[in-house]
Automatic annotation (TrEMBL):
The keyword Mitochondrion applies. It comes from Ramazzottius varieornatus. Pfam families: MRP-L46. The gene is RvY_03641-1. It is found in: Mitochondrion. This is Large ribosomal subunit protein mL46.
Length: 334
């Protein structure tokens, strides 16, 4: 009898402990806001969930296969530069350095033939005053000289006064004719065209797709003459691209069915001095000969971020130096 009572007491204690554990677990779940769930058994997914997952996998595989079948379209673009025609105006530092070199050359160089002749004539004039007895001999020597050094200097100065340097500002600058090659003579100019790309025209460098059997350099040459005219004469700089960019085609466009996107390779070329201006093709709606600053305002920012990496131009006019640094750097000390 006592054994049965002890066993009942033990069962009661186990039952009370299990109730307390359940209460603590429920309280903790309530405080944390989490619901305790039993782990899902294998094979518990419904047939509908399996069908949805299988359909998603099939769509992903189809998209990947479509991307692998489509290729990138290779395109060559030409960054055509018109080099500066005249030198840029000197800034304060350059003028000071040029004056320093002129002064140093004047003080350390040998006398020229003209300066020696001038000194000889000055000596003759002094001897003419001092040596009265040799006046006849000096007069004969002077008669043989048709034109003195001073006469030459007066003649040169007269011709120099008649000379008027050409103005740096041309008529094209005054009219703001961005299609003229005779503008911004002291700056580099870049050819940018409004070319038909897809459904809408875009401001870009002249570009075109690669054709089978061509090198990328040959494609660039063909594209430039096809879009800008056969009369343009230029010199390409090497056969290696100077820059690169890529972009994806819109999914709804027709070309996206064949190509995933475009990879553009930029080649540089210099315009010859005797070259004709642009003769635009039907795909070119408009064109400009723009400076670097004008080009930045014309093309889209993402495109300019790519092309500015190989557009080398140093603006000397931006250099400025204060008087203290100028005196320290360029003052002659003897």
């Amino acid at each position: 009898m006592s054994f049965m009572i002890a066993q009942s007491t033990q069962h009661a204690r186990i039952w009370i402990a299990s109730i307390a554990c359940t209460c603590r677990t429920s309280s903790r779940s309530y405080q944390t806001g989490k619901v305790l769930r039993m782990p899902r058994k294998p094979g518990a997914e419904t047939a509908k969930a399996l069908e949805v997952r299988q359909r998603a996998l099939q769509m992903t595989e189809a998209q990947n296969a479509d991307l692998h079948m489509r290729k990138w379209q290779l395109i060559s673009a030409v960054c055509l530069e018109r080099p500066p025609v005249v030198s840029a105006p000197l800034n304060e530092m350059e003028r000071s350095f040029a004056a320093l070199l002129d002064k140093q050359e004047f003080e350390t160089s040998w006398l020229s033939d003209h300066e020696l002749t001038k000194l000889q004539e000055a000596g003759k004039a002094k001897r003419k005053k001092k040596q009265q007895d040799a006046e006849e001999d000096v007069a004969q020597e002077d008669a043989a000289v048709k034109e003195t050094a001073q006469d030459l200097e007066d003649k040169w100065n007269e011709n120099f006064q008649k000379f008027a340097p050409a103005d740096r500002t041309t008529e094209a600058d005054q009219r703001n004719d961005v299609k003229s090659l005779n503008r911004k003579l002291d700056r580099k100019l870049y050819l940018v065209v409004n070319q038909q790309l897809g459904d809408a025209p875009q401001w870009v460098f002249p570009q075109g797709p690669w054709q089978n059997g061509e090198s990328m350099r040959q494609t660039a040459e063909r594209v430039l003459h096809a879009h800008c005219g056969e009369t343009m004469k230029c010199s390409f700089l090497g056969s290696v691209p100077f820059g690169f960019c890529k972009y994806k085609y819109p999914v709804e466009s027709d070309i996206a069915k064949e190509f995933y996107g475009a990879k553009v390779f930029f080649f540089k070329a210099l315009l010859n001095r005797n070259s004709a201006n642009v003769t635009p093709s039907e795909d070119i709606k408009d064109f400009k000969w723009a400076t670097r600053e004008e080009l930045e305002q014309t093309v889209i920012p993402k495109y300019f971020n790519r092309i500015e990496r190989f557009m080398y131009e140093f603006n000397y006019a931006s250099l400025r130096v204060n008087e203290t640094d100028h005196d320290t750097l360029f003052k002659l000390r003897y």
